[in-house]
Design a protein that fits this description.
Low-confidence stretches: 1-21, 630-634, 685-691
Mean pLDDT: 83
CATH topology of one domain: Jelly Rolls
Largest sheet: 8 strands, antiparallel
Number of strands: 51
Radius of gyration: 33 Å
CATH class of one domain: Mainly Beta
Oligomer: single chain
Amino acid sequence: MIKRTLFSLIISLFFWTCAKDEEPLPEDCAGVAGGSNICGCTDITAFNYNSSATFDDGSCQSHIDNGDYYLSFNGSNSYVDLGDMISQGAYTKAAWVKRNYGYAVANNIISGNTGHAFWAPQNQGAKLSAGHNGSYTVVQDPDSLPEAVWTFVAVTYDPDVASGTMTLYTNGAQVDQATGVTPPEESTNTYIGKFNNGNIWYGSIDEVAIWNKALGTFEIAELVNSDNDMNATFDRGSYISSGDLAGYWKMNEGEGGALSDASGNGHVGTINMAVWNTCDECGCTDPTACNYNSEATVDNRTCEYEDDPCDTCVDSQILANDHDSDGTCDDADDDDDNDGVLDVDDADPFDNMVCSDTDGDGCDDCSSGIYDPSNDGPDDDGDGICNSYIISGRTVYIVGESYNSEGNLTACYWVDGSRVELPGGAWATDIVVVNGTVYTSGTGETSDACYWIDQTRYDLPGLWGEAEGIAVHNGDVYVAGWYDNGSCYWVNGERVDLTTNRDSQAYAIGVRDNGMVYVGGYYMNNHHYIIPCFWKDGNNRTNLPIPSGGDGEVYDIAIMDGNMRYYAGVALHTSSFAGYTPKACYWRHTTRTDLQLGGSTFDIYGAGAYGITIDGSDIYTAGYTDWFGQTAEPSGGSYPQYWKNNNIHDLEGGPLNSWGTGTAYDIRVADGNVVVVGIATVESPDPTTPEGSFTAPCYWLNGELHFLVNQYDVPQEIERWMDGNAKGVFIE
């Protein structure tokens, strides 16, 4: 027993001694003893992806940003290959470019090996152009792309609008648009600075981005206004499409033969002969600018100027000393944010939405933009900030026209009271929203029918046209209206004639679940009787019943449960007072219901119904009652009102003094809340004259009047600053 124990001790000592003398196994890069891991970036979308790596060491980079650089192209053999990454559907291409002068240079910016081109061909005066499938000047800037000047260029394409709509932009402004553009043929590669086997750009390119959607006009403007950085990966303001980026090349590597993709989609560009240029010597080269840099040799688009009397230049920075843009500089302005509260009493004198809470309701007295404790709204979430919505949990869209900040009366829509301008529009008439995309109808500045998708305008064929109603069904856009040869509707920009004479008009449009299209309006029988009617799927017209010998018109359509149809409008009735007077009504299919008159104890003149909606079994219509009073001083006007199942509800904002107008144009109901939109009379500075009163766009929430504009939105010098209209409403 003693011998066995001693033997065990000896054996143990032997192995202990051997183990002590043995060297430990080396660790690999992952810290595994004796391991064989290859460390690197294992994310295939990263710029520095290592296909041989088996262990991710945290080194992945989506893109490289070493400062302010750009690429120069020689016009002969330099380009960047982005690979196969542009779709045959919707897209937007954008870049900052600076053109050098050169003969016979094709000047491609972002083009394919086939199918699509975005360029400024020298043989056409270096005019920015774009197109598809051999027709590469479908859209073209009438002016040449300037030499030696950084310019922001963009082109958008949407195959689903007007059989393919392409829009061209220079420095954020739309310069051309074309419809009926077929999608690009398949292109296996997309290039920066080249088309197919040549046609090289001659000059510099910086910050290239491609989206899988057609950006709106306001989004393009937001990008170009981001000074020297597009910031395409960050949503802000009107720009909401960072999630739709296909690729974004900031060109800030400054070295190497690869161009990293800041979108995170892994579309790394391969640089061929293009030369890196650093902006170590970049800056503002304009001596008249506040931030002029005398040592800069390359202008980087950052110049800032004193463009307002209250601007001051301090340490090369512009300080805006007129916060509320009221023409009074801040140091002489007792109310810097123009919210009606003196700076000394204002919790934030530079924010017109913040001032106080004198009534202690948890909502700021200036939440509407002006001091108004009685109208500062609810605070449902208890955060001390009033709800930004008209109806809790809903978004209310209202369409019409009003003055913008430049003092121009333009088409617009409001999102819960916040104004969004519709570019190139004189007025807007109807609105629908589908999955967050806003569709509006109206008339452009050149008196032609048009519609907008978000803020991108699409002109409709037909001279002197007007677009009155809009509907969207299965991605197709339907617009009702008329042109110089009669009533019509348009489907994705293609016109369908209804009655081909000038004595007919279409006001409203709706689409059943089965795709059947209904258009409401009127036509004139032998240039004499105005007949209310609807058209089904083109020129299949049905006349609606009216009083014997009378006339009528249809202004709006409501389709319930995908089938049941209601039409709101007006029908003429015999009257001892005026022979015939209009009376508001609606038709259920072809059965007419006349609506109550209201609004005044004076002699009634007539009424009309402009809008209709269905909520469950309840029928809501919106309109007006006209009156004319036989007094010592003749007086009259229109009262706004709505009807629920023929029970009339008078609305505030009718005639003031002797004359005035209030009209309800449209109505929607959500969660028991009734929203009516229209116009209401505004007190005049001179109440003794009819011309002193004017109307303003507004909405009524459960009967309470709210105006949609205030003086803060409009320049002070505009006398009739509240003028405008609210014609349609949609609740999402």
